[in-house]
Amino acid sequence: MRKVLFLTLSILIISSMVLTACAPVAAPAPAPAQPGDAAAGGEGSWWAQAAAAANCQGVTIRGISESTPPSRFAAEVLAKQFEAETGIKVELEPTSWDEMYNKAINDMQAGTGIYDFVYIEQDIIYQYLANNYLTNLTQLLADNPDLASSDFDFAKFTSFIDNFKDADGNVYGVPMEAFLKVYLYRKDLFSDPAIQEAFKAAYGYDLAPATTHQQYQEIADFFTQYGEDNGMELWGTTVQGNTGHASSFYEFFETIAPTFGVYNWGVNMENWKATVENGGAMNSDEAKAALAFWVGLLADAPPEATASTWDEVAASFAAGRAAQGWVYGENAAWIATDPERSKVVGNVGVAMPPVAEGVVDAAKSGAGYVGYYDGGAFGLPATSKNQLCTLLWLQFIGQESVQPDWAVAGSRIVMESTYDDPKVQEVNAKTDNYYTFMKEQGPLFRGAPPFPFHAALREVVQPFIWKALSGELTPEEALDQAAAAADAELVNLGYGQ
Is residue 202 part of a domain? Predict the structure, then answer.
């Protein structure tokens, strides 16, 4: 079904080019001792010997990533540790999502080689592979066995690593972060006896995290009114509804729509159509109900909602301005535990999102999903001039030993063993068992569809979502027009007729 072609010849050509372009491996050079063969750190460590063998000491490698808790930990902590071990300096540029994407793809398209590693979200990988932008890490390690750390093993990662493999199982990215977009709620508000009594009097059932969209709407209505009645800066929900940013497109199609049973942005992946009349679901009754529900939540959201991306949503919830909301899990730990940044420490609950009938069963069978499993990896551009030096860095951050502190700092887990680490379990208890939730319920969530045309289709569709949020179009009008535009664009891109 996919149009992504993984040509063995192309991969071999690219691998040859990038290996030629990087600094030559010192020859002759003894095979560096493995990590366990020497004391950690200093000139005798395996990492130092490997850096010397690859002529990397004193080299600076550069990367770019969206500014998130996990990426900042990599830049501020892991990069310094790596430099101390190897003499290789790492300059990681954390920036906004859109700037990261534009800078990375422009560099790889132009072949300028500015970046030695780039952040690749699991939704972007298909576009990068289709254009041969990335180096095959499986092959690069096989070609350089002396630079393969015994502490690094692709098999130790969770199944999330599968998002960064080609059709033959070759790995093109080392997972850096993985998290769910979860339903967070204020436990202090939901457990307040007076609030519980008032809610039950109004709606006839006990206040608890919503399991249906109607319940979610009623809870949102209740707390917005409660905030108004009590002179509080409190609203019933968050909405990631920026009317000029891709974040709103993602919240609707990858977080809200799936809870109504609309998957893969409503695109039929058998015939590549989006309109109902052509077999798609982008303008289906379910999709229209989802958009009407979501746009309707604006009345219960903080006034900045139509300017909010994922960052502002997290900040709003942390400031105590919303009783509930869908929040990216990368923020769960600091919202729940950091009193310097959050006003709701100790009062954050984690729950499954409200869903339409049949959605959970579809998720359990693999036919659907209940929400968004997000995250990304660091990949090695084919245009990097420091291939082997960067290979060492990617292995360094992929060690089991660095994962627990990283998981605690960034609410991310990419290795199975990390779940059981005492440090992680301690924070888990303070975050209403978010890590346990991710481990147990993660299989019901899914990342973005495997579209090599991801960005192109998003650019065509998202203006209609913005117009629905701003009131320029009704949800029905917006999706009818979006689906028609999607069908036309897919034909233009060579998918379907």
Answer: yes
